[in-house]
Amino acid sequence: MRHERVQVNGIDLHLRAMGDPAAPLILFLHGFPEFSGAWDEVLPAFARSFHAVAPDQRGYGPSSKPEGVEAYRVKHLVRDILGLGELLSSGRPYILVAHDWGASVGYATAIAAPARIARLVVINGVHPGPFQRALIEDEAQRAASAYMHYLRDPRAEERLSANNFEKLMGMLTRFGQQAWLTPERRAAYLEAWSVPGALTGMLNWYRATPLMVPKVGEAVDMAKVPKLDPSHLRVRMPHLVIWGMADQALLPVSRAGLADYCDDLSVREIAGADHWVVHQKTGEVIDHLRRFVGA
């Protein structure tokens, strides 16, 4: 495993990387509250055929942490990934694999620059079209997403960092004990979260999103709902969704109708795994990825 720093889009990104830098690029995008180390067990499986790279996205770990919520709008997150891809792929299209919030960036990047992304893999993450519809129409998804209000609150940093990040660690275990979360892994997460400015950077992703998250039972002013034109949100490249079926944060309704936005969609569902399927069913996830990308 190599640790590298690169400058793209006016910021520094820390990378974990394996494989020949001249090989085709495959980028792995983490979600919240993880960091590039979330892919440590996955990168080696692709190092023989690809240049496998997992960045700490802006606000996370050792990467840059621009000040202010505005710096975490999706347009900036997309430019980070496009800049990184351009730097590492020598102009060739590359593969994106993305989980959770990383999937939001993956979808936005694929939509904005379809010629740059050869294939898109999303693991328990959501396209903005179906997800916003579910938040408006489905009370169960509203309840499952209620934590977003907590994370957007100005007091979130104080609450989540108290007692050595007790509540933030609890977000990894709130759906049940996670056997993969060994003492060594806990220590790695705590180290990433403890970098000055990291927690605010991470939370600013939630504060910057335009998605409307109504409270349970709340009436919705449809005039305030973001306008998401399906014709402008198409995923044109081959697209694979891998889904842990016991996810309690993103319910199946959060991806209902996804095929309407995609030219070439495949879905692989994994029983007995939740939102952290990458850690719980690592071998199965790798097998699905290999078949899809041709490794």
Task: Tell me about this structure.
Strand 1 (2-8) and strand 2 form a beta hairpin. The protein has helices at residues 74-89, 101-112, 128-137, 139-144, 147-152, 156-173, 183-194, 198-208, 277-280, 282-293, and strands at residues 2-8, 11-18, 25-29, 51-55, 94-99, 117-123, 239-244, 265-270. The chain is an alpha/beta fold and 295 residues long. The chain has a single domain, classed as Alpha/Beta hydrolase fold, catalytic domain (Rossmann fold, 3-Layer(aba) Sandwich), CATH 3.40.50.1820. The chain is globular. The model has no long low-confidence stretch (mean pLDDT 95). It has 10 helices and 8 strands. Helix 1 packs across helix 2 (101-112). An 8-stranded mixed sheet has the order 1-2-4-3-5-6-7-8, with helices on both faces.
Topology:
Layout: E1 2-8, E2 11-18, E3 25-29, E4 51-55, H1 74-89, E5 94-99, H2 101-112, E6 117-123, H3 128-137, H4 139-144, H5 147-152, H6 156-173, H7 183-194, H8 198-208, E7 239-244, E8 265-270, H9 277-280, H10 282-293
Helix pairs in contact: 1-2
Write a short abstract of this structure.
The protein has 295 residues and is of the alpha/beta class.
CATH superfamily: Alpha/Beta hydrolase fold, catalytic domain
Share of residues in helices: 25-40%
Distance linking N and C termini: 19 Å
CATH classification, class level: Alpha Beta
CATH topology: Rossmann fold
**Total number of domains:** 1
> What integer value in Å does the Rg equal?
18 Å
The dominant shape is: globular
The major beta sheet can be summarized as:
8 strands, mixed
Class based on secondary structure composition and strand pairing: alpha/beta
Detail the poorly predicted runs. none
State the strand order across the main sheet: 1-2-4-3-5-6-7-8
For the record, the CATH architecture stands as 3-Layer(aba) Sandwich
The overall pLDDT, averaged over residues, is 95
Report the total helices: 10
Number of distinct beta strands:
8
